[in-house]
# Entry
Amino acid sequence: MSEQIELSSLAAEFTEALARQQRLAERREAIVTRLHDEVERLRQGEMETALDLVRHSLIRLHDQILRQAEHVDGPLGVDELRALLTALADEAADTVARTGVERYVPRRGEAFDRALQRPVGRVAAESPEAERTVARVVTAGFVQGERVVRKADVVVCRWEPDATPNASSPATTAVTTSTPASPSSPEGTGDTTAYQDN
# Structure
């Protein structure tokens, strides 16, 4: 009889222990679910904050374009049109910069860097020292810290001893992939004609 009582007591204790474990498991699951929901809310909030930054920047760009349009009261000359488009391109670059992405414009004559630049053409170098240097920037690149968002498209100098250096000769190979915008050097001393054909 005592053995049956002892077995019944052990069974009751075991059942209670299982019930406690079940309650603990349910509590842990509830905590994990709540934490997951909080993380999702925080992530959504961060995404909305980032999107708001882009939205406000684009709205400012929109307003800038309209303000420029209001001042056009007749046919524009080449210089005026270039200045207008340059101002809009600079505003667009500023908009991108507000998201942490900076415009990168190689200097003419600097060494070609495949990590940051994409060759879209070549010209004959004036000397052996100019081999594999940047002859002309076609489109600017964009970087975010160490991350390259878009490489700069450049025309590269190649030394050919028997060739006569002439960037505008028929031997010049250059492919323009997009309409360029006037750049500003990262150090503020870049060549403002870097995008123009030589």
User: Anything to note?
Assistant: The beta strands are 102-104, 117-124, 134-139, 141-144, 147-150, 152-158, 173-174. Residues 9 and 78 are 98 Å apart (CA to CA). The first strand starts at residue 102 and ends at 104. The two ends are 108 Å apart (CA to CA).
